[in-house]
Design a protein that fits this description.
mainly alpha; 2 domains; three-stranded antiparallel beta sheet; elongated
Length: about 140
């Protein structure tokens, strides 16, 4: 009967054999791979846009869950793209931040009074349309 050779077992890596910078690089890559396509950046953009409209005129610092020099620029570009599509008439200003590298604020947006007037106008228009449709139905049912 022959002997079966045991598989080669890798030796444990000694801490001193791997440079600390390489360990940091590998940890950074692992974190990046785990956080891709998770939707966190989209949620951050949603929160930033909500903050812009809740606090018009206040500067809002941009942060991302991924700490990289480009991440705040990426958030800024995503916010601006969304603003162009969803709120094309509103102006967003940008400045060099004190805490974050980029800060933005909503420079112009409709006033609360304007929004309330528009809501009232649309409600009245909707009620008038509803009354007209109701009258048409009543008239059709009579004949």
């Amino acid at each position: 009967m022959g002997y079966v050779k045991a598989p080669d077992i890798p030796r444990p890596i000694r801490r001193s054999s791997v440079p600390e910078s390489r360990i940091q690089e590998l940890m950074h890559e692992i974190i990046e791979l785990q956080s891709r396509a998770s939707g966190r950046t989209t949620r951050i953009v949603d929160q930033v846009i909500q903050q812009l409209y809740r606090n018009p005129g206040e500067w809002i610092a941009l942060y991302d869950h991924y700490y990289d020099g480009r991440s705040e620029k990426h958030i800024y570009n995503m916010v601006m793209r969304r603003m162009e599509f969803e709120h094309p008439n509103d102006v967003v200003e940008r400045r060099q931040g004190k805490i974050s590298s980029i800060e933005i604020r909503l420079a112009s947006c409709p006033s609360r009074e304007y929004i309330e007037r528009e809501v009232k106008r649309l409600r009245l228009q909707l009620e008038a349309e509803r009354d007209r449709v109701r009258e048409d139905l009543i008239n059709k049912l009579k004949y």
